[in-house]
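Lecture 7 notes: from sequence to structure.

We start with a single chain of 79 residues. Read the sequence below before looking at the structure.
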Amino acid sequence: MSYVILGRNIKNEYLTLGTLFTVGATVFALKGGKKDAGKPLTERVKDAVPIKAESSEEEEFIKNFIAEAEKESGGSSHH
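Now the structure, written as tokens:
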């Protein structure tokens, strides 16, 4: 049996293979990538975003400000 798609006859075997390939490629693409499951999101963000300060005093002030803000919010980033 075959189906007519865009004016052409396409056999069931080719439709099946195309579907399986598409599903397999999608699963492979979604599973790939580096996983940092061990670190919480806030730690990964801190590592990824450097603090650009003019002096060491300014950098220390920024770190203290962030630590105090995290204490106030209870460490959660939910609204």
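The CA atoms of residues 35 and 44 lie 11 Å apart. Keep this in mind for problem set 3.
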